[in-house]
Amino acid sequence: MSAPTESPAESSAVSTDAPLAGARRLIVKIGSALLVDDHRIRRDWLDSVADDIAALRARGVEVVVVTSGAIAVGREHLGLVGRPLRLEEKQAAAATGQIRLAAVYQETLARHGITVAQVLLTLDDTEMRRRHLNGRATIEALLKLGAVPVINENDTVATAEIRFGDNDRLAARVAQMISADTLVLLSDIDGLYTADPRKDPDARHVPVVTEVTPEIVAMAGEPPPGYSSGGMVTKIAAARIAMAAGCRMAIAKGKRLNPLAALLETPAAGGAPATWFLPQAEPLTARKRWIAGALKPHGRLTVDAGAVAALARGGSLLPAGVRAVEGEFERGDLVQVLGPDGREVGRGLSAYSAEDARRLAGRRSAEIEALLGYRGRDEMIHRDDLVVG
């Protein structure tokens, strides 16, 4: 296969920036092939990853873990080894394996005084807007409280989701959901090659990719054997999702101890090589671009001149500035924001349903609990969920 061009696959000099060193919100995806050996969790290796996570948190980095392994761990306890599993057997193995998996993560991070929170998702939870917002709010709250969310596919209820590469894509969708700036997929290989290095001695490592082109997609090979469900094909698919969300992504070799610490140094300084997929936009910019162009509004909020001025300064839309509510929409749906003259001044994701928005229109945020019977967000539309102009 011909060598990649300078764009989208750039020269190796670009890779010396060690992007992990600039991470603020990091997602680490751990696959079954790394975590599980002979149906048992590689505890020494996981302890080293936990040490890395603690060191990153000491640098001020928020860390989220997306883990596979529940089925691989659980199948032995149910006598399901040595043969392919039916769907219901995979779900049963996941149910027993997830308990053991969560306990091990809790134990290893507790050595550093870190609280672990288990979050089980399906792809639908990241794609359906209201479920997306609920999941995002939960993860945001856990990070704010200092916990490390450990996320896995909810394999006990999933159907088509239990298939080739689900957690690579799930990790990328979680990155999109919470506006993470960095995603690391720990793998059995140190990145993307121009061909399968196990079969082609002339295959060359690609250190940096700035666009997922057909040529880049063609470099992906077949999934590895064993219990792992991933492979380079799904990692490229994850890169496409992450880059569209403004999140940089690395494919890095995870079998070594302390694999994240090895990414903090450049290869020239003794750090581990990896392939970095570098987007052209920051996470929030990409999210707002998606809000502006990818969704159809479900309703309209007319606001007063004071609210228009506040939005122009980068503020959120508060209930007090809303004068009228039109349409029928639910929490998380896209709505237009209209000025007093009826012209659109922005659009965003409503924190309240149309029914609740009508109750709150023109009222102060301090009155929300008394009016609705529960304490919701202070903003009708938070500025992170709002596009103005």
TrEMBL record:
ATP binds at residues 29, 187-188, 229-235. It is found in: Cytoplasm. It comes from the Bacteria. Pfam families: AA_kinase, PUA. One of its GO terms (molecular function) is glutamate 5-kinase activity. PROSITE patterns: PUA (PS50890). CDD domains: AAK_G5K_ProB, PUA_G5K. Residues 299-381 form the PUA domain. Its main location: cytoplasm. InterPro entries: AceGlu_kinase-like_sf (IPR036393), Asp/Glu/Uridylate_kinase (IPR001048), G5K_ProB (IPR041739), Glu/AcGlu_kinase (IPR001057), Glu_5kinase (IPR011529), Glu_5kinase/COase_Synthase (IPR005715), PUA (IPR002478), PUA-like_sf (IPR015947). It catalyses: L-glutamate + ATP = L-glutamyl 5-phosphate + ADP. The keyword Chaperone does not apply. Pathway: Amino-acid biosynthesis; L-proline biosynthesis; L-glutamate 5-semialdehyde from L-glutamate: step 1/2. Keywords: Amino-acid biosynthesis, ATP-binding, Cytoplasm, Kinase, Nucleotide-binding, Proline biosynthesis, Transferase. The keyword Zinc does not apply. Substrate binds at residues 68, 155, 167. Its EC number is 2.7.2.11. Coiled coil: none annotated. Belongs to the glutamate 5-kinase family. Catalyzes the transfer of a phosphate group to glutamate to form L-glutamate 5-phosphate. This is Glutamate 5-kinase. The lineage of its organism: Bacteria, Pseudomonadati, Pseudomonadota, Alphaproteobacteria, Rhodospirillales. The gene is proB.
